[in-house]
Design brief:
Layout: E1 2-7, H1 13-21, E2 27-33, E3 45-48, H2 54-60, E4 68-71, H3 77-92, E5 102-107, H4 142-158, E6 162-169, E7 171-173, H5 182-190, E8 195-198, E9 207-209, H6 210-220, E10 229-233, H7 241-252, E11 258-261, H8 263-269, H9 286-292, H10 299-313
Parallel strand pairs: 1-2, 1-4, 2-3, 4-5, 5-6, 6-10, 7-9, 8-11
Length: about 325
């Protein structure tokens, strides 16, 4: 049985991943999070602790060898550094598996790349060199810090008996999504409201279904082919705003009232469309497909599953 330590894991992608592995005799799961959303899944050991509470985590974390650590909520280099300090301290105080290699799977983001006309963006494309103040104070440092966290992870692995795998998802959609992306359009259509879309339909995006991302993480555990490598996770479909809404209408089996407006007008009215209005988000997800022999769920099929979950959980 493989011991898997999950950092985070109670909200969106992490929750789907934990649900997929729970009850499988191949894995023993321990989940560390702040306890805001308890999983309450049979057989899953939940530890309530802030990941940066080093002393608290040292006391609460079992002193065992972890075959894999899956980190869903590492946002800064210090987040990574603190986890490694705890892991190395606990491993050194335990005789079980002290000389064994552990794998650290870090969930990063495709947002770490610089803007480029060389599309699709691949794993070796140029990365950000600083924060993005144009995104506002809350989001300015997010992507740059994720890239810095990847670099910190590599450095920590060099200094310990760990290997790493960095996974960079594109826009994730599917069940448990707390971000108003697909649900934004579901809600508008269900409430018979007009959908405002940009009159320039050039921008194209790529998505990954949350269950696909969870399956990829699972396949990476113990897989030699992904050791000390980084991968984009991005489905094959190129999706514009028009196609997104057409797929949503198809899976809902409903009509929708659509009004096209200029980007300037949408910005002026602060209409909260969930994706960029005039910027491509196109990434190559081919490397992980080739490495694992993985096939992404087609976008319309994935959206159909997403709407089924939405309907079951928004019936009131």
């Amino acid at each position: 049985m493989k011991n898997i330590l999950v950092i985070g894991g109670s909200y969106f992608l992490g929750r789907v991943f934990v649900e997929n592995l729970a009850g499988n005799d191949e894995f023993s799961l321990c989940v560390v999070n702040r306890g805001n959303v308890p999983l309450n899944i049979s057989g899953v050991n939940e530890i309530v602790c802030n990941r940066n509470d080093v002393e608290g985590l040292k006391d609460k974390l079992p002193r065992i060898h972890w075959d894999a650590v899956v980190d869903f909520c590492g946002y800064t280099p210090m987040d990574i550094k603190n986890i490694f300090f705890v892991l190395k301290t606990n491993i050194s105080s335990s005789t079980e598996g002290a000389d064994s290699t552990s794998q650290y799977i870090y969930i990063s983001t495709t947002s770490i790349y610089q803007d480029t006309f060389d599309l699709p963006v691949r794993e070796d494309s140029l990365k950000l060199t600083g924060p993005q103040p144009e995104l506002g104070p809350q989001a300015a440092g997010y992507a740059f810090n994720k890239w810095r966290s990847e670099q910190e992870l590599i450095e920590q692995c060099r200094d310990s008996n760990f290997t790493y795998t960095c996974l960079r998802p594109a826009i994730i959609y599917g069940k448990y999504n707390y971000a108003p992306r697909e649900s934004y359009f579901f809600d508008l259509i269900n409430n018979y409201k007009i959908i405002i879309l940009p009159d320039n339909d050039l921008a194209l995006f790529q998505f990954i279904l949350v269950t696909d991302a969870a399956r990829i993480i699972r396949q990476c555990i113990g897989e030699e082919k992904v050791i000390n490598r980084s991968f984009n996770l991005a489905g094959d479909d190129l999706v514009s705003y028009d196609r997104f809404v057409n797929v949503v209408k198809n899976v809902m089996g409903q009509r929708a009232a659509i009004r096209k407006q200029s980007i300037a007008s949408i910005d002026e009215q602060r209409i909260p469309l969930p994706f960029p209005l005039d910027k491509h988000l196109i990434y190559s997800g081919a490397l992980i497909k080739q490495t694992l022999g993985f096939e992404y769920t087609p976008f319309e099929e994935g959206m159909r599953k997403t709407y089924e979950f939405y309907s079951q959980n928004n019936s009131g």
